[in-house]
């Protein structure tokens, strides 16, 4: 009869241990300083000046020369975008995340 009475006690101790463990994890993950939610954007190393190269069409086929001409006309409106941020993993550790993409600026001019 003592074995059957020990089983509920063991179950209660295990449940209490799980609750204390999860509560400690939750409290510990919220403790201390956090990374900033936002940061300032990095400035361009060129000082905001755009530099364009003259199209080099010597030795190209007619189709390649047309592609170079189209690219030269569209290049000023293409924006390259690079993002760097910090996210938190399951253990509330800061993990750097990077992304890249491009965009197209449309203007009435």
Word description of this protein:
By secondary structure, this protein is an alpha+beta fold. The protein has helices at 2-30, 62-74, and strands spanning 78-88, 94-104. The chain has a two-stranded antiparallel ribbon with strand order 1-2. The longest helix is centred in the first third of the chain and has 29 residues, at 2-30.
Please sum up the structure shown:
The protein is of the alpha+beta class and 109 residues long. It has helices at 2-30, 62-74, and strands at residues 78-88, 94-104.
What is the number of beta strands?
A: 2
What is the H-and-E element order? HHEE
Based on CA inertia axes, which overall geometry fits? elongated
Radius of gyration: 30 Å
C-alpha termini separation: 90 Å
Low-confidence stretches: none
* Mean pLDDT over the full residue set: 79
Helix content bin: 25-40%
The main β sheet shows up as: 2 strands, antiparallel
Give the strand order of the largest sheet, numbering strands 1, 2, ... along the chain: 1-2
* Approximate strand percentage: 15-25%
Lay out the secondary structure:
Layout: H1 2-30, H2 62-74, E1 78-88, E2 94-104
Antiparallel strand pairs: 1-2
């Amino acid at each position: 009869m003592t074995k059957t009475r020990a089983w509920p006690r063991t179950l209660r101790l295990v449940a209490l241990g799980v609750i204390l463990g999860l509560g400690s994890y939750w409290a510990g993950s919220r403790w201390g300083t956090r990374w900033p939610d936002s940061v300032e954007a990095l400035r361009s190393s060129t000082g905001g000046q755009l530099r364009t190269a003259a199209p080099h069409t010597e030795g190209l086929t007619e189709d390649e020369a047309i592609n170079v001409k189209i690219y030269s006309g569209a290049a000023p409106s293409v924006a390259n975008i690079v993002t760097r941020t910090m996210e938190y993993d399951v253990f509330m550790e800061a993990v750097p995340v990077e992304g890249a993409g491009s965009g197209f600026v449309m203007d009435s001019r």
